[in-house]
Specification:
By secondary structure, the protein is of the alpha+beta class. About 40% of the residues lie in helices and about 20% in strands. A hairpin with a 2-residue loop joins strand 1 and strand 2. The longest helix is centred in the first third of the chain and has 20 residues. About 50% of the residues are buried.
Length: about 1000
């Protein structure tokens, strides 16, 4: 459950003050007894309904797979939090997973008096300031919560969603929205609607104090996140009045410590009303049938008068404001300008300007800063909210560069924009790329419901026509309009936020209260859930791939060709797949990075980027450990141009010594920055535990070796890459024959392939005794990961691994999540999975994780170890997990280029057919006894490596020594440089 960042800055324009072209017009129609509105030529074919109670329902039919994506959104978030109780909307989001008076409870009549007592105690706690009395009240809350938990069923909502085939249960809260995410098989529509309607009928706020502790953990994770700190402090300066800057979604520490269930209930009753909500569905649905069922399910909701947040306008910013932020991560600078409301011409201009500055290829920042390597990294964007937007630029300084110097380089690009020193063709190219992005995105049901929900939050969906018309409206903007607007907008009216590397002395973490584990009653089932499980469902038959029929196999010269025809649109994706990677040549990834900055005998590096952007095509040279790929994608009408250009680049690129020198400096600076990233450090520690001192993570050139790389070495790789064995894959409109004829004219192949250098081999460690690998990092939290190598891949284990992971530790309804988070409140994030390798000669690994406050680490480790050694039995949870695993295969449809990816994945594991066939057959007879035996043989009572990243100031060495022999790793040992 996370805060949301708007995703549609470039793909879906957030409205426009310009009238939509006649192409997109609102119309009204009736069908199946219901009237709805729609927009002509809408690629999503969305129907917008308003039910009698004011509930907005949007249905978008897409029958390519038997799955439906769903979003329920409320136009209320942290903006509407009471100023005396910030974080309340986010609390409520968490609590709406806890059930009602009908589910999540064994006996609500007995549970309710205890819940009422807890609510009253929290009111006392809220109004009490004396520390001793507060501690006494909390002890009563803890005791009463334990009594109440005898009647509660933790995570029953998640179990029910899992039982009907849901795979993506989640939610998020942001400034002006709370959104609940689900997907479900189309055959489970009746079950799904019954559950969702009940969920919001009479929610009960049970298991509160442990869930509150999870929110504390989320807050503490934010304190360790320098990006969040930059965001919050910048917003506070940009919006000195508006709640965008004055209230954070997660809330203040003081308010987190003093929650009020009474205020949370008031908030729910005020804002969770049908005239303030939307239900969006996209997928395999019949609109006439679906709207009738939705209406019947949610007709009980009653509209209420509604008053949303309506702030006074912000005063104009008239001066530069500077902020200094400290933390352990790499340095950066961010420049933020206050933008305009959604659906304004100014917001459209700022969105377009963000692409003119930074589009990944041909923007001013891309060409002038990134291409010329004047900074470590940089970009720009526009983030749209309802009342205002935020236009931002950011940069990471390169070696020897100050934050102020990096900032000036960003401001220089604004100056260039204001002078009009950019090509007007950028506008046309931005529109073309935006249209291509929409063509790809609207094929995804998840994008459809996200876009529709976003529209509702910003303007109740009334501007859907203008949003669809956004790229065309943008195309009408002239260069003069952009320059005139830029000169009016970009003044000394910004916030400059400097992120320094250093200790943040302002951090005050949320302290851990004393919590007694509550009962989860994981084996129990409410009557509502029993009825839901018993509802009739028409089975969906799985559809497996037949590689001989679903793929087209051919040859182009000595290269194998594999194609899948795209019969839906004009998009193509071409890949040259080489069976070489970093393990074959440590210089290969450096060659791929160097290529970005090289010119040819015909084109400069800048011209190359501009050409790709102008034809709305992309190309990339990506290098993995064992595979390298050259990929080209875009519209088929530009296929020849794009492929010709790629072939020309690889054959004719020329050395650029200055670019190589700058690249080396940036690589070395990037290495320094990686050593400041706690997630990267944890990955390195885990790989060290898995393979030992010489491992894939630290298999790197030394810094001195990097400094000694020559252009000649890298160019030899680039110029000769096509001489190595590779497979050509294509997903696009052309048939195999037509494609082969085309590619034979464009792609140069040798008479025979050059043998590749044998790949570097790594040996797995044998975990014979408990060990601790520790890395010191300045943080509030502790990150603990368990690792044990568990034997070479066995095809016959796939079904057991899938079911074990689903039951034990792979989701919110799993045993691990229910115990570690729901019962014991030891972590915000936790999981445990038996991880399968991607290649038949590699090993499995048992991996578990807990991210918790440092002062909870010992309890968290103990709690996880108990589960690793003793698998609890919960019959209903097992039954649900098995059904979900089968349902996932039955409803999964692998299509498009996914067929090619599945073929290669199965081939690496030794399969000549769709491996899901074997897994599906293997799942059906499995019982809990089988999974129990698997757990005993593979997981329980084994020695483990504990990989810990935490601050030495917050965790004790003697505590870690109780887990096993401690090895404190240096950053050089972890990274190899």
């Amino acid at each position: 459950m996370k805060q949301k960042l708007l995703l549609f800055a470039c793909l879906l324009i957030a409205g426009s003050s310009l009238m939509a072209q006649s192409t997109y017009q609102w119309k009204t129609a009736s069908s199946g007894g219901y009237t709805y509105k729609y927009v002509t030529n809408d690629p999503t074919k969305s129907r917008f309904y308003t039910l009698k109670n004011g509930l907005t329902v949007v249905l978008s039919q897409n029958t390519k797979e038997p799955i439906i994506e769903y979003r329920m959104a409320v136009r209320a978030g942290s903006n509407t939090d009471p100023k005396t109780a910030t974080g309340l909307a986010h609390y409520l989001e968490h609590l709406l997973f806890k059930g009602t008076d009908k589910f999540g409870t064994l006996n609500y009549a007995k549970e309710k008096p205890l819940l009422d007592k807890i609510e009253a105690l929290y009111e006392q706690y809220h109004d009490t300031t004396d520390p001793v009395k507060r501690k006494e009240i909390y002890a009563q809350i803890d005791k009463t919560s334990g009594e109440a938990s005898n009647y509660s069923i933790a995570n029953e909502y998640d179990k029910m969603m899992k039982s009907i085939g849901g795979q993506s249960t989640n939610a998020h809260t942001w400034y002006e929205e709370t959104v609940y995410n689900e997907d479900f098989p189309s055959n489970a529509t009746d079950q799904f609607l019954a559950l969702q309607a009940e969920r919001f009928r009479n929610p009960v706020f049970r298991i509160f104090h442990t869930e509150l502790e999870a929110v504390y953990e989320e807050k503490n994770r934010g304190l360790d996140n320098d990006t969040w700190k930059v965001e919050e402090l910048s917003s506070a300066k940009l919006f000195p009045t508006h709640n965008y800057g004055q209230q954070t979604t997660i809330g203040t520490i003081e308010h987190l410590k003093n929650p009020s269930l009474v205020e949370i209930r008031k908030y729910y009753n005020k804002y969770y009303v049908p005239n303030n909500m939307i239900l969006a569905f996209a997928g395999d649905l019949n609109p006439d049938e679906m709207i009738k069922k939705v209406d019947q399910s949610f007709a009980y909701m009653k509209a209420k008068p509604l008053e949303l947040y309506n702030p006074a306008p912000e005063k104009p910013l008239t001066a530069i404001q500077k902020i200094d932020v400290y933390g352990p991560s790499a340095e950066s600078v961010k420049i933020s300008y206050r933008g305009y409301a959604e659906s304004t011409s100014q917001s459209m201009l700022l969105d377009l300007i963000s692409s003119i500055l930074s589009n990944g290829k041909a923007g001013l920042i891309d060409i002038n800063l990134k291409q010329q390597q004047k900074v470590q990294g940089a970009g720009a964007g526009y983030q749209q909210m309802k009342d205002y937007g935020v236009f931002y630029l950011y940069a990471q300084p390169k070696q020897g560069q100050s934050l102020e110097q990096a900032q000036q380089l960003l401001l220089d690009q604004i100056a260039i924009l204001k002078k009009g020193n950019f090509d007007e063709s950028l506008i046309k190219a931005t529109v073309a790329n935006s249209k291509l992005g929409l063509l790809e995105a609207f094929d995804k049901n998840s994008f459809r419901v996200e876009a529709i929900t976003n529209e509702f939050i910003l303007n109740r969906g009334v501007n859907w026509d203008k949003s669809l018309n956004g790229p065309d409206a943008m195309a009408k903007i002239t260069k003069k309009q952009i320059v005139d607007f830029a000169n009016q907008f970009f003044k000394e009216n910004y916030v400059a936020t400097y992120k320094h590397k250093g200790e943040d002395k302002s951090i005050a973490k949320v302290e851990k209260p004393a919590i007694t584990p509550v009962n989860t009653n994981a084996s129990e089932t409410s009557d509502f859930a029993k009825n839901l499980y018993g509802m009739p469902v028409k089975p969906i038959a799985p559809k497996f791939l037949d590689y001989k029929k679903d793929l087209n196999f051919g040859k182009e010269g000595i290269a194998d060709v594999i194609t899948v025809q795209n019969k839906d649109n004009s998009i193509f994706n071409l890949t040259y797949k080489f069976d070489v990677g970093t393990w074959n040549s440590q210089l290969l990834p450096y060659a791929a990075q160097y290529l970005t900055f090289l010119s040819t005998d015909k084109y400069s590096a800048e011209d190359i980027n501009k050409q790709f952007y102008n034809i709305a095509c992309n190309y990339s040279f990506n290098v993995g450990n064992e595979v390298a790929t050259i990929s080209v994608s875009g519209l088929q009408e530009n296929f020849d141009k794009a492929v010709n250009l790629v072939e020309h680049i690889f054959a004719n690129c020329k050395p650029n010594e200055q670019a190589l020198s700058d690249l080396k400096t940036r690589i070395l600076k990037g290495r320094e920055n990686s050593k400041l990233n706690k997630a990267t450090i944890l990955s390195g520690v885990t790989t060290y535990a898995q393979y030992g001192p010489n491992n894939p993570f630290n298999y790197n050139l030394s810094n001195d070796a990097v400094k000694n790389i020559t252009s000649e070495q890298l160019l030899y790789i680039i110029h000769n890459i096509n001489n190595y064995k590779h497979t050509i894959t294509y997903y696009g409109p052309k048939t195999l024959g037509d494609f082969t004829a085309d590619i034979s004219k464009l792609h140069r192949l040798p008479k025979e392939f050059t043998p590749e250098t044998p790949a570097k081999k790594f040996s797995y460690t044998s975990t014979n005794t408990n060990q601790v690998f520790f890395a010191d990092y300045d943080m509030v939290q502790s990150e603990v990961r368990w690792l044990r190598n568990s034997g070479t891949y066995e095809p016959g284990l796939a079904a057991k691994v899938t079911l074990f992971n689903s039951y034990f530790g792979g989701g919110m309804g799993s045993i691990v999540f229910q115990t570690i988070r729901e019962s014991k409140a030891l972590a915000y994030s936790t999981f445990a999975v038996f991880s399968a390798p991607d290649k038949k000669d590699k090993e499995y690994a048992m991996v578990a994780y807990v991210g918790s406050q440092a002062d909870k680490m010992n309890e968290a480790v103990k709690g996880m170890n108990e589960l690793l050694n003793d698998l609890p039995k919960a019959d209903k949870s097992f039954e649900v997990s098995k059904g979900n695993a089968l349902n996932s295969i039955e409803t999964n449809r692998i299509t498009k280029e996914g067929i090619i990816a599945a073929y290669f994945a199965d081939k690496k594991l030794g399969f000549d057919h769709d491996s899901r066939i074997d897994e599906y057959v293997g799942l059906k007879p499995l019982s809990f006894a089988d999974i129990k035996t698997f757990h005993e043989q593979k997981v329980a009572n084994k020695p483990y490596s504990y990989c810990i990243v935490a601050s030495e100031k917050n965790v004790k060495m003697e505590d870690m020594q109780k887990f096993g022999t401690v090895t404190k790793l240096t950053l050089e040992q972890i990274f190899g440089y």
